Amino acid sequence: MNPLLQKLQPYPFEKLRLLFADATPNSAYPHISLGLGEPRHPTPDFIKRALTDNLAGLSSYPATLGTDRLRESIAGWLKRRYNLLAIDPATQILPTLGSREALFSLAQAVIDPTKPNPLVLCPNPFYQIYEGAAYLAGAQPYFANSDPTRNFAPDYDSIPPEVWARVQVLYLCSPGNPTGAVLGMAEWKKLFALSDQYGFIIASDECYSEIYFGDEAPLGGLEAAQRLGRNGTPRLIMLSSLSKRSNVPGMRSGFVAGDANIIKQFLLYRTYHGSAMSLPIQEASIAAWNDEQHVIENRKKYVAKFKQVTPLLQEVLDVSWPDASFYLWADVHARTGLSDTEYAKRLYADYNVTVLPGSYLARDAHNVNPGRNRIRIALVAEVDECLEAVRRMVAFTKNIST
């Protein structure tokens, strides 16, 4: 077996299963999970129809590059969403099976193992795929801890030059998982300058980009590059997905876009990798990317949930609205004295509600685990179920506090 597999840690939900192994949930309450970031709003009917109307496509092998129509629909969405003047669907866009597998396989394609001690820079807390991608590509992850004074955005200023010199890929997530932090233009300008200086690739995970709460949509990497006059988006790859935007996590439909030179080599890798999207999924994806009204309605649901849920939680926990995404990132220790794992386990046992300990989403780095004593609350269910779960959390926390 590949010895690098031994470096992989159990996934957060496996850790959660072990944490709950000796806990018996209170049978007086039906189980509600706020732990898994899986969208649970209904899939729009027009997307399902586009899928079933094109089942004849199952009889053909799909091309890794996808159809022209799919790439053109993605290009059209990118231009509308990010006010892009130009994006070439033939050379700058590649369909993927969601963003997760692309985030992982990108590292395999772009890490140069002939260079000594390659690093992959990750936020901390973070999406664990980044770490696994680094290890299996023969690199080491290096963690940029979140900065609580800047809404938990990664603290890139603390990274020394000798580390930047070894970085080959920088994974970032904006809006962030689990913190919801969004990078602004100043941060993008700084990262682009560092990429120019040291030559690393920026992989911008933007799968939460369509869940936000004000009139201004979160800034994306391609948009920031255009505003800064970076022609051709050098060393920048943006990754997105329909899972959260359109409530189709089971479709596994996403894309990568950006630097045409990287896309060309990534296509070569994926041709061998065997990750080609089936034609029915491509047709359903075209329908989804071409429609914005269902996204607007979906976003309204999240806004309504946060408006009702957040004030209730603020009565008992230190928590605030995120910049974007569907997570709340709450401090449980300050008011209860419990650790994140103690809080999660006792909440599950007493009220049959699942939340995810923040320490499971982070690593001990630079003498701290920035997720410790926090929990991630995924507001993915319909509003009534979320409200019921949060009311139980309020009752539980009040009992602990007294």
Description:
The protein has 402 residues and is of the alpha/beta class. It folds into two domains: 3-42 and 294-401, Aspartate Aminotransferase, domain 1 (Alpha-Beta Complex), CATH 3.90.1150.10; 59-291, Type I PLP-dependent aspartate aminotransferase-like (Major domain) (Aspartate Aminotransferase, domain 2). Helix content is 40%, strand content 15%. The protein has helices at residues 12-19, 45-52, 68-82, 100-110, 129-136, 161-164, 185-198, 221-227, 242-246, 260-273, 279-289, 293-314, 333-336, 340-351, 383-401; strands at 32-33, 93-96, 119-124, 140-147, 153-154, 167-173, 201-205, 236-241, 254-258, 327-331, 353-354, 356-357, 374-378. The strands form three sheets. An eight-stranded mixed β-sheet has the order 2-9-8-7-6-3-4-5, with helices on both faces. The protein starts with 11 loop residues before the first helix and ends with a helix.
